[in-house]
Design goal:
DNA damage, DNA Cyclobutane Dipyrimidine Photolyase, subunit A, domain 3, single chain, DNA-binding, Deoxyribodipyrimidine photo-lyase
């Protein structure tokens, strides 16, 4: 084995081992499993205390939007059942779209189906992302089977496969979840045009606590302009969930789903396999609950004042689960808020990030069609970047050099290594990382494209409104204000190496991930 190859293999194993130790204690796995099972049981009991099923629960109709002109399940040609097209929210319980689908199915005494449509190519997703998602969906399929709800995996284009399923299975109504991203909205519009006549098409925002169309009717300028709009509505929307129950109406045998070989499915996909799965975080609803429980018990008390220190393990590590919808943000908030009296500052900080900042990101992507390019930034930000467009760059790197962590900055390189090896960069360093890309590329456009590409390629929570807004904040000043003028940055907020030194022990972080200084001619 060559020295270079040996170093790469060793580094991967080293960082993987470090991450496991960093996030877990020496607590026996059997004890951890028992605690998680108790937590799962407690959550389910709380659902049952709320209502026996969605039928007895007062569902807030403001969570839904009727996407076409039909609002009643037709009397004929609907005997196949009610269908939920699952996309962004890949879980069974604590899912308002799933619950609304069951509500319709129970009301009309019809079977219930859940479909997921899989494509080979999705926004630079790699083996790392597909493996995490499919393992989670396998758990979804098993959980649905226990509830006598049919899970169908469709392969191909959404605009063809979803309408075809609705027609072939004589579906009486189609429910979908919500995403503000361009690709999902295009799917929705194309499916709407192809659905059989008189089939209602209903969207439920199962991702945000306050539905996107209720929180605000415009693009918000900053967290301060949306904070009260969201917080003032939490009383109506931050409620306990009723349970999804065993469904009493079963479909005809001919409408039952085909069995799925999940390993064979993953092998068959024509995807980029060069970015490998990670093993420090396990996918699926049960694992997300275990992560939530460990955050509450071990890390929450330090979250308020230590969350910006990348050398400490105090983050929730829930963002991959939030991204795939394997756990509801609302469930996390419900459970975390129970510790308000003992960890007030930490609970407030977590709610600010998980509710206000996260829903602000959805707001930006929903109301701004240019959420991933510089046409979407404010006039002052565009002017200042243009004013400094021709400023001399001391360093200019290619995308490949960035990807391989070959810059002159050992802290930046260590952050890049963390992302490529573990699939999750620390939140504080994501800001520094993106701002340095602006500083070290030939243009702001190239900088933004590079940051989004690397974020989406390596982070498990990439291809997400939070990621787009994070890059746009760092490089384009979105949700920020003008600061003192500097070379290249203009009035965009500046971050540097010495500033990070004052925040945390950068030598400790660099030692953990092994970023080294690479020399390049200026």
């Amino acid at each position: 084995m060559s020295t270079v190859l040996f170093r790469k293999v060793y580094l991967f194993k080293f960082t993987s081992t470090i991450m496991k130790r960093f996030l877990t204690s020496d607590e026996p796995s059997t004890s951890k499993k028992a605690k998680t099972e108790d937590f799962l049981e407690e959550i389910q009991n709380n659902r049952l205390k709320t209502a026996e099923s969605i039928v007895e629960f007062k569902f807030n109709k403001k969570r839904i939007k009727i996407l076409n002109k039909y609002d009643e399940v037709p009397e004929s040609n609907s005997e196949g059942g009610i269908c939920y097209w699952m996309a962004r929210d890949q879980r069974v319980q604590d899912n308002w779209a799933m619950l609304f689908t069951q509500k319709l199915a129970l009301k009309n005494k019809l079977p219930m189906h859940v479909v997921f449509c899989l494509t080979d190519k999705f926004m630079d997703a790699t083996l790392r992302h597909y493996k995490f998602m499919l393992d989670g969906l396998e758990e979804v399929s098993l959980d649905l089977k226990k509830l006598s709800i049919n899970f169908h995996l469709l392969i191909g284009e959404h605009k063809k496969e979803i309408p075809k399923f609705v027609k072939d299975f004589k579906i009486g109504a189609l429910v979908c979840d919500f995403s503000p991203l361009r690709i999902h909205r295009e799917w929705v519009e194309k499916i709407k045009k192809e659905l059989p006549s008189k089939v209602p098409f209903i969207q439920v925002d199962a991702h945000n606590i306050v539905p996107i169309w209720i929180a605000s009717d415009k693009q918000e300028y900053a967290a301060r302009t949306i904070r009260n709009k969201i917080n003032s509505k939490l009383g109506d929307y931050l409620t306990e969930f009723p349970p999804v129950i065993k469904h009493p109406y079963k479909p005809e045998d001919s409408l039952r789903p085909e069995p799925i070989d999940w390993e064979e499915l993953l092998e068959s996909l024509k995807i980029d396999r060069s970015v490998e799965p990670v093993d420090w975080i396990k996918p699926g609803y049960k694992n997300s609950i275990e992560m939530l429980e460990s955050f509450i018990m071990k890390r929450l008390k330090h979250f308020g004042d230590k969350r910006n220190d990348p050398t400490l393990s105090v983050l929730s590590n829930l963002s991959p689960y939030f991204h795939y919808g394997q756990i509801a943000v609302q469930r996390s908030i419900i459970e975390v808020k129970k510790y308000k009296s003992s960890a007030s500052a930490s609970v407030d900080a977590f709610c600010e990030e998980a509710i206000v900042r996260r829903e602000l990101s959805d707001n930006f992507c929903f109301y701004n069609p240019n959420y991933d390019n510089l046409k979407g930034i404010t006039d002052w930000a565009m002017k200042t970047l243009n004013d400094h467009r021709k400023d001399k760059r001391d360093y200019v790197y290619t995308r490949k050099e960035f990807e391989e962590a070959k810059t002159h900055d050992d802290l930046w390189n260590s952050a890049q290594i963390q992302m490529t090896k573990e699939g999750k960069m620390h939140g504080f360093l994501r800001m520094y990382w993106a701002k340095k890309i602006l500083e070290w590329t030939a243009s702001p456009e190239e900088g933004l494209e590079t940051a989004i590409y690397l974020n989406d390629r390596f982070n498990l929570d990439g291809r997400d409104p939070n990621g787009f807004v994070g890059c746009m904040w760092s490089i384009g000043g979105i949700h920020d204000q003008g600061w003192g003028e500097r070379k290249i940055f203009g009035k965009i907020r500046f971050m540097n190496y010495d500033g990070c030194k004052r925040k945390f022990d950068i030598k400790k972080f660099i030692a953990r991930y092994g970023g080294v200084v690479h020399h390049k001619k200026k």
